[in-house]
Design brief:
Radius of gyration: 23 Å
Strand order of the largest sheet: 2-3-11
Number of strands: 11
Structural class: mainly alpha
Shape: globular
Strand content: 5-15%
Protein name: RagB/SusD domain-containing protein
Largest sheet: 3 strands, mixed
Pfam family, one: SusD-like_3
Helix content: 40-55%
Organism: Runella slithyformis (strain ATCC 29530 / DSM 19594 / LMG 11500 / NCIMB 11436 / LSU 4)
Subcellular location: Cell outer membrane
GO cellular component, one term: cell outer membrane
Length: 502
């Protein structure tokens, strides 16, 4: 696997098809599945292309849908700019939805980009078994394609709890509008794909940095078992990761996250999305969508360190809530590594000091162009998942050491929780502060059945004190705020126009 994953290319591959008519000649100059999939390099490039949409999904999209759509983050209202409803509706839990359909653009992006990954993985999987390429490459490429398909179907299941179950390339338009699979059907396929991927993929130490590994596939599979409350099955997968010797916590919490050009795919990283600072078009700019606005150039440069800082206006998104800030215990080192504060001279608010997400605020060269990677699974989450699976099986003494590993790194004393109920709350608390702004919070609230209770109480606090939640005097909390607290998003209206099955 000599091709680096960071140099993925987005291929426009023709649909896979077979013809019994040997007189039908495909021009050798046309890029299609007939002419392209011939060499080892072709298959490596094809699976590289399946990684590409991950950069779009996690550059802006995922943290709006999972962190701002929770009690972790909000937006800073700028009445001169006006509301950006696609974002503010997420934070206010009033996403317009009718008959299971929504017009929210962020939801549409998540749907389309995940199905783009699925389509590209399907193209590889349809042809890989018959390919005359080295067996080691075949196994590795196939394992990556299965992992990526499973990961995308996990996102579809968690966002929508239903979706078309496409497992083969679509060769004609009529096949694109597949019947909707249920959540259970999607999860069954994810389990099948992830299980097969585990047996095909190499461990982290033998895999090219940035690519899927057997450990990443186990983490994904365990994630599904945690959702399904199959605690013993989750424990099996998580213990295999822990005992593999492939992973460990970074001594310093802040070092678990990459810099713009270094500290990537560390020993704590189980799987992360790769970005590359520079002009190749592989960069991210998600830091810039995690800032309170408006912000002047001289203020922005204190966060980014760029040589050409530019002022930013508009409405800031993904701003840490007071609720999250107060969730950290005194002395928790993760707080200052995760959340910073900045004073904005141009803010319309009486209090011009705002928090921002420091976790990803790493110096980089040029404005709006950075290379920090995005974490999907970290070893600390493996430890907390394992603790939770053990707690739910009432293996309390076995669970506490895994919680304490995470707490010790944070500079905190061992947990004092002793009962199953108290330990359950303890692991929920650790997940919130350990994994803040890693696109986990909404999924955790849904998975543990706490969404309605937590968000209703949070909404009451927002409506009772709008200033505390970043509204200026002229701003107002929408009258329909917190009226659509549901565990899943509606399917995108733009796709419903194309399918009779929605």
């Amino acid at each position: 696997m000599k091709k680096s994953i960071i140099f993925s290319i987005a291929l426009s591959l023709g649909a896979f098809s077979c013809s019994d008519d040997f007189l039908t000649v495909t021009p050798e100059t046309a890029l299609s599945s007939v002419t392209f999939f011939k060499t080892e390099t072709d298959f490596i490039q094809a699976v590289n292309s399946a990684y590409v949409p991950l950069r779009t999904l996690h550059n802006i999209n995922s943290h709006l849908l999972t962190e701002q759509h929770s009690d972790n983050a909000r937006y800073v209202r700028n009445v001169l700019f006006g509301a950006t409803e696609n974002q503010s509706n997420l934070a206010d839990f009033n996403v317009p939805t009718a008959n299971g359909i929504t017009t929210n653009g962020n939801v549409l992006t998540a749907y389309r980009q995940n199905y783009l990954i699925i389509a590209r993985a399907n193209q590889v999987l349809a042809l890989i078994d018959a390919a005359t390429i080295p067996d080691a490459t075949k196994r590795n490429v196939k394992g990556q394609a299965l992992f990526l398909r499973a990961l995308s179907y996990l996102e579809i299941a968690r966002y929508f709890n239903r979706g078309p179950l496409q497992l083969t390339p679509v060769s004609v338009r009529s096949e694109a509008a597949a019947p909707l699979g249920t959540g259970d059907q999607l999860y069954a396929q994810i389990i099948k794909d992830a299980t097969e991927a585990i047996g095909l993929l190499p461990p982290k130490s033998a895999q090219e940095a940035g690519r899927a590994t057997s450990g990443a596939a186990r983490a994904l599979l365990a994630n599904v078992f945690m959702i399904q409350k199959k605690w013993a099955d989750a424990e099996t997968q998580l213990r295999a990761i822990v005992t593999s010797g492939e992973y460990s916590l970074m001594p310093n919490y802040a070092d678990a996250f990459s810099n713009s050009t270094s500290n990537k795919n560390t020993r704590e990283s189980v799987f992360e999305v790769q970005y590359l600072e520079g002009a190749q078009g592989l960069n991210g700019n998600f830091l810039y969508s995690m800032l309170p606005l408006p912000i002047a150039a001289n203020e922005l440069v204190t966060i980014t360190g760029t040589s050409n800082p530019q002022p930013l206006s508009g409405e800031g998104n993904n701003i840490p809530t007071p609720d999250l800030i107060e969730a950290y215990e005194p002395g928790d080192r993760r707080r200052d590594a995760t959340i910073g504060f900045i004073t904005l001279g141009g803010a319309l608010h009486a209090n011009k000091s705002f928090p921002f997400i420091r976790k990803y605020a790493r110096p980089h060269a040029l404005h709006n162009n950075h290379g920090m990677n995005w974490p999907i699974y970290r070893y600390s989450e493996v430890l907390l998942f394992l603790a939770e699976a053990l707690i739910e099986q009432n293996k309390l003494a076995d669970a506490t050491p895994f919680i304490n590993q995470v707490r010790t790194r944070a500079g905190l004393a061992n947990t004092t929780a002793a009962t199953q109920s108290a330990l359950r709350d303890a692991v929920y608390q650790e997940r919130r502060v350990e994994l803040a702004f890693e696109s986990k919070r909404l999924h955790d609230l849904v998975r543990t059945g706490r969404l309605e209770t937590v968000i209703k109480a949070y909404g009451d606090r927002v409506k009772a004190d709008k200033f505390r939640y970043y509204f200026p005097s002229e701003g107002f909390v929408p009258s329909d705020a917190f009226t659509n607290i549901t565990p899943y998003y509606g399917l995108p209206a733009a796709e419903a126009d194309l399918s009779p099955n929605f």
